[in-house]
Amino acid sequence: MPEITKTRGYAIGEMSKRTGVNIETIRYYERIGLLPKPDRTAGGNRQYNHEQLKQLSFIKRARGLGFSIREIRGLLAMAINTEFTCAEVHEITTGHLASVQEKIASLQRLEAVLQDMAAQCSKGDVPDCPIVDTLFELA
Amino acid sequence: MPEITKTRGYAIGEMSKRTGVNIETIRYYERIGLLPKPDRTAGGNRQYNHEQLKQLSFIKRARGLGFSIREIRGLLAMAINTEFTCAEVHEITTGHLASVQEKIASLQRLEAVLQDMAAQCSKGDVPDCPIVDTLFELA
DNA sequence: TATGCGATCTGTAGCCGCTACAGATGCAAG
DNA sequence: CTTGCATCTGTAGCGGCTACAGATCGCATA
């Protein structure tokens, strides 16, 4: 009879390897209540189950997509309670999308200014630089 | 005989109004050595001169362009000592430009994913959401 | 069974770039 | 002289981690 409670759970290092989330960060997520407190071994080491592994992967992906901890809290609450509506999730997502788009637009304006400044520069070895002038003189 | 030491200097609030930099932030810049320690009145209030006003404006603009404090330190050191070469300034600027461009590219990839997710969503009032599914299931 | 050593533990402090207090003063107008 | 806003110092907090120190755990080998 194989496959009887083969998986005694994952140690924190295992969780880290599987999700790519730093060990310190995993403990940090626990501290701020983003990840539930796992079981402990007799000696006190954390033992995670598959559910918690899935949740950490969720967090990792959401963070990778730039969702804030606060937003992830909201998404997780919905995903776990299953007392949410798809529309609510859609709202969080499009809200986040809008802020990403704003950030892109503002960075593109920035890019244009920096390119301008760089283009005006003679790259000479003299202490007279249009970039410094720009920063000092323009309103 | 007018115009004899008319300008006794700027109080911190005046500096704040003229540059748009928060008062707390001005003191913070002083603390970290980004702005020189100004003169004080007999009572201990800060009194800035025109030079310092210009420098704070410089910092403000550079921050607005996304230069880090560290980068600004470098730019300021060059701008003030005038022992810099234009090429050095150019290097800092193009380095910063490159990092801005990277940030734009990565946000655009993000945007695409978020748009995809949002588009797949039915926006229904059921607890079955492709966005949540995506976050949970995809590698 | 002892030992060695990597993994994990807790707790705390630091990073960046501010921001927000509290509680004590300064200063200028009326 | 009083009123009341401006400013002072010092410290703590934000988000989202990261980096220690110093102690303990747990598993493979001798």
Tell me what you see in this structure.
With 139 residues, chain A is mainly alpha-helical. Chain A folds into two domains: 1-67, Orthogonal Bundle (Multidrug-efflux Transporter Regulator, Chain: A, Domain 2); 85-139. Chain A contains six helices and two strands, in the order H-H-E-E-H-H-H-H. Chain A has helices spanning 12-19, 23-31, 50-64, 69-81, 86-120, 130-137, and strands at 39-40, 46-47. A two-stranded antiparallel sheet of chain A has the order 1-2. The radius of gyration of chain A is 24 Å and the shape is elongated. Chain A starts with 11 loop residues before the first helix and ends with a helix. Mean pLDDT of chain A is 83; it is low at 1-6. Chain A binds a DNA duplex (30 and 30 nucleotides) through residues 11-13, 22-25, 27-28, 32, 41-46, 63, 68-70.
